[in-house]
Amino acid sequence: MEEKLFFYYTNDLHSNFDQWSRVTGYLKEAREDKRIAKQSSWLVDIGDHVDRVNPIAEAFKGKANVQLMNDIGYDIATFGNNEGITLAHEDFYHLYDEADFDVVCANLNNIRGDNPQWVQPSVTVKTKGGVRIGVLGLTAPFNAFYELLDWHVSHPFDVLDAYVSELAKHTDIIVLLSHLGITEDREIARRYNDVDVIIGGHTHHLLRTGETINNTIITAAGKHCAFVGEVILTWDHNQRQLVRKEAYTTDITHRAKDLQTEQKLNELISEADKILDEKITTLDKTIEVNWFKNTPIMEKLTATLKKWTEADCAMLNAGVLLDQIESGDVSLKDIHRICPHPINPCVVQLKGDELVEVIRASFTKEFMELKLKGFGFRGEVLGRMIFAGLEVETEVKKDGQEHVKNVTINNQPIDHNHTYHVATADMFTFGRLLPEIAKSESKRYFLPEFLRDLLARTLNEEYGQAN
Is 20 exposed, middle or buried (0-12, 13-18, 19+ CB in 10 A)? Predict the structure, then answer.
C-alpha cells in the first residue's frame, strides 16, 4: 500500500504583504483539499518571513507576521537572518511566544543563557498511516552580527553531524528546513544520505521542479511568495521506504486575494500607523533629497555616522534616503518610509590606497545608477557617495564622466600605507559592490541600530526641535 505525504511551504516573504492574501487563499484551499481526501499534509515556512522594510513588521517587531502565520495554520517554521539579526535580543527572544506552530532550529544558541522556550532542534510528526517524519531546522551562521546581539549560530555541518544519524534511528523520513542557501543545500545533499528532502531559502533561488542530488531532493520557491512550493512524498508501507519524491512550485501572482486576510492586513496597517505615529521632531521647512547630488541632509547624516562610530571618516550613498522630508511634525512612520532599509552602521579598516580606490569606484556611473536588490538595500538606486572627514576633488573628463582628482582626509594628504577606520553602511561589506570594503579583514558592525536611527538623531539635533 502506498501513502502520499504533502508539504506545502513558503520562504523569504520579506514582509511583502501585497502577496500574502494570495498565499493565504492558495494554502487554505490546498489544505482543505487534503483534509477532504484524508491525506497527510503540513504547512512550513523557511524563514525571512519578517522584514522590517514593511511598517507592519516595523511596528510590531515581527509579531504581526506570526499572527498572520497562525491565521493560516502553519505547522512548522524555521527563521532566517531577517528575524535573527534585525531585531534586538529581547524582541527576537519573544518573537514566537504566541506562535501556534513549532519553530525548529538546531544551530541557535543564546549567549545570555537558555534558548527561548519556543525553539527546538527538530520535531517528529506522523502521517495518518503512522510514518514518522523528522523535521530539522537550520539558519545561516552570520555570527559577525548574531554575536553582537548575544546569539551564536553553530556551523550547520557540526549540527548535522550531531543530529542526522540520531534522528534517522527514530524516524522514517528526514526533512530539513534550511535557511542556508542553495550552495550549502547542495553540499548537505552530497554529504548526508539520510536527509530525504531539503526545503530551502535565503538565496532566493527558484527550483520549479526540484533538484535531486544523491538521495536528496532539494526545492525552493524564490522570494516574496510569488511562488508557493509543494513537496509530494510517496511511502510504500510494504517496502517500508520512500519510492517517489517530487517537488513543484506554483506561480500564485494571478490568483484572487483572500478577503479575510485583506481585512486583517488593513487592520494591522491601521494599528501600525498608530504605533509609528510617535513624534520625533518638528521641521520648519521641507528637506530636499537628491540621489545624484550632495545635499545638506546627506552631508549631516554622514557626519552623524562618523561621529557616532568614532571613525576617521565616513561615506554613505545618497540612495539610502528615498524621499524628501516634509516640513512639520516628523514621526517614526516618516523616518521608516524615508529610510526603510534593515542596514546597520559599520566600520571597516582600509589602507590609504584601498580607501582611494573605493572612492574612485563610487564615482562611476555604473555604481551610482546601480539598481541594487538585496544586501538590506530597499531603495531604487545606490546614488552618489557622500563623505565626512574626507575632501574629494573631482573633474569632468572628455568622456563626460566625473573622475576623482585628489583626496585628502581632515585636510591632510592620504597616507597610502596608513590604516584608516572608515564608517559606512554594512551592505558594502557583502558581495562585490566595493571589493576593498568587502575584503577588509576588520569589520565592526553596530547592532541593533539601523541607519534610520541615525537619521532620526540627525533630524532632531540638526534640524528640528523635539517636544
Answer: buried
Cell representation of residue 45? 515556512
Count helices and strands (H / E) in the chain. 15, 25
Question: 70-123 pLDDT, tens per residue?
Answer: 999 999 999 999 999 999 999 999 999 999 999 999 999 999 999 999 999 999
Element (H, E) at 176: strand 173-179
Domains along the chain?
2-271 (3.60.21.10), 279-463 (3.90.780.10)
Write out the three cell numbers for 345.
552602521
pLDDT in tens, 283-336: 999 999 999 999 999 999 999 999 999 999 999 999 999 999 999 999 999 999
Which secondary-structure segment (H or E) carries 233? strand 227-236
What does the H/E/C string look like for 342-411? CCCEEEEEEEHHHHHHHHHHHCCHHHHCCCCCECCECCCCCCCEEEECEEEEEEECCCCCEEEEEEEECC
pTM: 0.92
Pairing type for strands 216-219 and 197-200 reads parallel
CA distance 363 to 173: 54
User: DSSP letter string over 143-167?
Assistant: HHHHGGGTEEE--HHHHHHHHHHHH
Sign of torsion, CA 431 433 436 440?
A: negative
Question: Three-state SS for 56?
Answer: helix
Burial of 47 (0-12, 13-18, 19+ CB in 10 A): buried
Section 256-265 average pLDDT:
95
- Enter the DSSP assignment of 35: H
- CA 303, CA 299: separation in Å to the nearest integer? 6
**Which contacts of 249-252 are long-range, i.e. CB under 8 A and separated by 24 or more positions?**
249/206, 249/207, 249/208, 249/209, 249/219, 249/221, 249/222, 250/26, 251/226, 251/227, 252/19, 252/22, 252/23, 252/26, 252/225, 252/226, 252/227, 252/228
For residues 201 and 11, what is the distance between their CA atoms, to the nearest angstrom?
A: 6
Q: Give the Cα separation of 304 and 297 in Å (integer).
A: 10
Cα of first residue to Cα of last residue in the chain, in angstroms, is 72
Tell me how long the chain is: 467
Within 10 angstroms of residue 124's Cβ, the number of other Cβ atoms is: 14
Residue 259, amino acid? L
Distances (CA, A) of 226 to 19, 78, 204, 320: 7, 20, 11, 26
Separation in Å, CA 319 to CA 55, 78, 294, 385: 20, 32, 11, 9
SS3 label, residue 64:
helix
Gap between the Cα atoms of 467 and 459, Å rounded: 13
Picking from 339, 359, 344, 371, the residue whose alpha carbon sits closest to that of residue 408 is 359
